[in-house]
Prior knowledge:
Chain A is an all-beta fold. In chain A, 0% of the residues lie in helices and 51% in strands. The mean pLDDT of chain A is 91.
Amino acid sequence: DGGITQSPKYLFRKEGQNVTLSCEQNLNHDAMYWYRQDPGQGLRLIYYSQIVNDFQKGDIAEGYSVSREKKESFPLTVTSAQKNPTAFYLCASSTKGYCFGEAFFGQGTRLTVV
Amino acid sequence: AQSVTQLGSHVSVSEGALVLLRCNYSSSVPPYLFWYVQYPNQGLQLLLKYTSAATLVKGINGFEAEFKKSETSFHLTKPSAHMSDAAEYFCAVVPPGTDKLIFGTGTRLQVFP
């Protein structure tokens, strides 16, 4: 079945650690996105990528990094510079053209700082 | 910057009543507009989209939305609420000339028996 997979579902991070969230899609989509979701704030765009080896900062990129070495994969690293990383992280992918914006979402990763 | 505003962070209706969730966008040029639904601890699922083909858009689960350029609105409606409609609903926009998908702050819908 085609879809988008995020792992792990739950992740715990100690202060000062970097952690990487995985996002893989087999939909042959060009565009991939990372969002952060906090209660009452909706989804805020962290990074997005329209093509392999290229990505752009979203509205809240500070303290995060990404790579896009393969079309299928768009991992997100939460660095120690991110001071308040506890949140629900959602990855999405979308095709280009007319259907752009019809994003498919993963099930999310809940990150907690301990 | 282009954005969407969702009026009302919480909406409560009785089962069988009309559902109306409000969304306004800020742009002089109509963007692509979307409604997504999120169930607890899940990702988002597309309900419907507007891409300038028709102003009244029908989606899944009996939802529909009407694009009104004069009001810069794209409100989501359903004639008769069902208990299973209880979820969080997000309006989203792709601003003209960009490749970003921007979301509103969401509206949580509660349905009472």
